[in-house]
Amino acid sequence: MLEKIKALAREYEKEIVERRRYFHMNPEISWNEVETTKVIAEELKKLGCDNVKVGFGETRCGVTADIGEGAKCVALRADIDALPLNDEKDVPYKSQKAGVMHACGHDSHAAMLLGAAKILTRIKSSLKGKARLLFQPAEEHGMKPGAQALIDGGALEGVSAVFGIHSMSTVPAGEFQYRSGPFMAAADAWELIITGKGGHGSTPETSFDSNAAAFQVGSALQNIVSREISPRDAAVLSVGGLRSSSYVFNIIPERVEMLGSVRTFRVQVQDHIEEAMRRVVKGVCEAMRCKADLKYTRVIPATVNDPEITEQVKSVAEDLLGADKVKESELIMGSEDFSYFGRVVPAVFANLGVGNAAKKSDHPHHSAKFDVDESALYLGAAMHATFAWNYLSK
Ligand SMILES: [Zn+2]
Ligand SMILES: [Zn+2]
């Protein structure tokens, strides 16, 4: 079957690249993927997929569909949204929309999964169950994650595992990277308001200096990761911004606002950092005669890969690409809303390299010159199809 899937992926390679270019030229930002959704849904209907469901999160964005028959069901996921960014590449398939661009490779994800749909349709009679395709909107949104909207819309009903691939420009094209257990970080956001008593810059004794409290808080926060978290656990606490209610040479400001982010891989560490921030902020501000108001929001959970399914993904990748092309990934401090699927059923997220300096596809994700080496895309389609066939056969 492996050779057959590989040959089919080669057969559809040109179509996969064409589709990717179409999506690249017609990008839509999170929760606006109406046309992208239409194109995908039409293609799935043409292929004869079952249960084609369109529209999630009370929008017309996102599609799910099934291929195959039987009780066992495995889901394959591609996110489809673009970013609010100007495409600065000089290529024939450049974005046709000012200020919108596929700068994270989600165009390639959608194209690879459509390729997989074609392959799976051709081997449908050999599938010992169903493959559910998840074309998910709004991965980049953060506050209204598309993954959760799909789950709320019933996309995981009957599903016993989810697999997803991200194209990575930082990984050489054609290389595949996996990691068992914690893989991508949880992203939390925090906002702090420190309120003191404003006054004249010449008479500090008449004020409670909110600036002075903010300086102490800023450095005290840096002790949390370094002094309270084990060096074996990766964590980041960053201050992203700081501003005073006045910015005048002879005024002590009444109030200071600070905000920032926290990245962790384990809930225990996340819990500890939130508790420590509340304790440190309150203690320091009280000592400085100021009032602290901290708002801490858990935005995206950590992506944690199921060890058993990771093993299956790894062996499928080795068979398909060759063992020398399959490597263990480092922990990634960025985050992914794929993590929501992993909270419901065993899930595995992995990276397919699309980086190639000679083809100018080694720019960072979310940058204006981001591109992918399209010669790797048929491999992603083959990975999706082979994993699904293999998982259903077990
Ligand atoms: Zn992104
Ligand atoms: Zn992405």
List keywords for this structure.
single chain, alpha/beta, Alpha-Beta Plaits, 2 domains, four-stranded antiparallel sheet, 10 helices, binds zinc ion
Question: TL;DR of this structure?
Answer:
The chain has 394 residues and is an alpha/beta fold.
Number of helices: 10
Query: What structural class is derived from the secondary structure elements?
Result: alpha/beta
What is the CATH architecture annotation of the largest domain? 3-Layer(aba) Sandwich
Corresponding CATH superfamily of the largest domain: Zn peptidases
Count the E strands.
16
Q: What is the fold's blueprint, element by element?
A:
Layout lengths: L1 H10 L1 H13 L8 H14 L2 E7 L4 E8 L4 E7 L26 H17 L7 E7 L9 H7 L8 E12 L3 E3 L2 E4 L1 E10 L3 E2 L9 H19 L6 E10 L6 E2 L2 E10 L2 H21 L3 E10 L2 E3 L1 H15 L4 E3 L10 H4 L4 E9 L21 H17 L1
Parallel strand pairs: 3-4, 3-5, 5-16, 6-15
Antiparallel strand pairs: 1-2, 2-4, 6-16, 7-14, 8-12, 8-13, 9-11, 10-12
Helix pairs in contact: 1-10, 2-4, 3-4, 4-10, 6-7, 8-10
The protein binds zinc ion (2 copies).
What report would you give on this structure?
This protein is 35% helix and 27% strand. It is an alpha/beta fold. It has two domains: 2-184 and 302-393, Aminopeptidase (3-Layer(aba) Sandwich); 186-300, Alpha-Beta Plaits (2-Layer Sandwich), CATH 3.30.70. Helix 3 (34-47) packs parallel to helix 4 (106-122). The longest helix is centred in the C-terminal third of the chain and has 21 residues, at 267-287. The radius of gyration is 24 Å and the shape is elongated. It starts with a helix and ends with a helix. The relative contact order is 0.20. One zinc ion is lined by residues 104, 140, 365-366. Residues 104, 140, 365-366 line the site of one zinc ion (ZN).
